[in-house]
Design brief:
By secondary structure, the chain is an alpha/beta fold. It contains twelve helices and twelve strands. It has a seven-stranded parallel sheet, sandwiched between helices. Strand 10, helix 11 and strand 11 form a beta-alpha-beta unit. The two termini are about 20 Å apart.
């Protein structure tokens, strides 16, 4: 059997996922991350399974790959996969919802602290021979607003307790008991936007969350508030965010995920009160090894006729 893979970070730090595939008698062919739909169809024509990053898995793809039985997302968000089309063609979809939660939570706080203390500008000025006295913003005892209190959001909330922050969360699907045990208060989204000193996003991208943070919600935020998005591009209306930041209606933003990726230029890149990175929140050695191993285990389970551990569809 054959699996194709479009994730450039698959098994980047460990050969163990390849070893598992080899022991199962399955071959893996690596494909470019930016492969076109036509080339993907051609290269995956005889594939039984696929491990994908961000290439679109469309109706045309599923219709053209009769051997395909399973697609495993090398990550959490499955917005690049047409789930209805997969269902129609009998293709199982899996993802890895928790493997990188600690890496993403750590990175979220790295962005939050860098924003609060303006570290990129301090670093650049110091290297340029200046000796800047940049006054930062407090993090300790401030209010953290979390949109999405699933596994990653909860990991962020736990880190916030070390800073003695007040933590608010918005999530229509939250487990109230689990949230209460963390000392987190559930509120509506508008209240979250109004009260948060730092607002961080940890939801997937869907029709319901597309441009969830828009002009109206940005207008609710404090002029001293800061936004962090280490989740998915498209949750934030980037043009609205640019206008809010340019006009100093909010104080700053750190963005690790963009609506179009890779993004080589953006009005956001021109602003000093923005930190940007290339969708790397989950990129650590342990997270990527766990991610790759889990994808392989779920793909092999489906190919053996077994139930995967992390199904997205039935």
């Amino acid at each position: 059997m054959k699996i194709v893979c479009t994730s450039p970070s698959f098994a980047k730090y460990s050969t163990s996922p390849y070893d598992v595939l080899k022991a199962a008698g399955v071959t893996l062919e690596s494909l470019p991350a930016d492969i076109s739909e036509a080339d993907f169809i051609a290269r995956a024509a005889d594939a039984d399974g696929a491990i994908v990053a961000f290439n679109p898995m469309t109706e045309a793809v599923f219709n053209s790959l009769p051997n395909l039985k399973v697609v495993s997302k090398h990550g959490v968000g499955v917005d690049n996969i047409d789930l209805a089309a997969a269902q129609r063609h009998g293709v199982r979809i899996t993802n890895v919802p928790a493997a990188n939660r600690h890496a993403v939570a750590d990175f979220t706080f790295a962005l939050l602290l860098s924003l609060a203390r303006d570290l990129p500008r301090v670093d650049a000025a110091t290297r340029a021979g200046e000796w800047p006295r940049c006054f930062g913003r407090d993090v300790h005892s401030m209010t953290l607003g979390i949109v999405g209190i699933g596994s990653i959001g909860q990991a962020v909330a736990k880190r916030a307790t070390g800073f003695e922050m007040r933590v608010l969360a918005y999530d229509p699907f939250a487990n109230p008991e689990a949230v209460a045990a963390l000392g987190v208060e559930l509120v509506d989204l508008d209240t979250l936007c109004r009260e948060a000193d730092f607002l961080t996003l940890h939801v997937g991208l869907s029709e319901q969350t597309h441009h969830l943070i828009n002009t109206e919600r940005l207008a609710l935020m404090k002029p001293t508030a800061m936004l962090i998005n280490a989740a998915r591009g498209g949750i934030v209306d980037e043009q609205a965010l640019y206008e809010s930041l340019k006009e100093k209606r909010i104080a700053g933003a750190a963005i690790d995920a963009f609506e179009q990726e890779p993004l080589t230029s953006s009005p956001l890149y021109t602003l000093e009160n923005v930190i940007v990175s290339a969708h790397i929140a989950g990129y650590t050695e342990n997270a990527l090894t766990t991610l790759s191993t889990t994808c392989v285990e779920d793909v092999l389970a489906v190919l053996r006729g077994e139930e995967p551990k992390h199904p997205v569809n039935a």
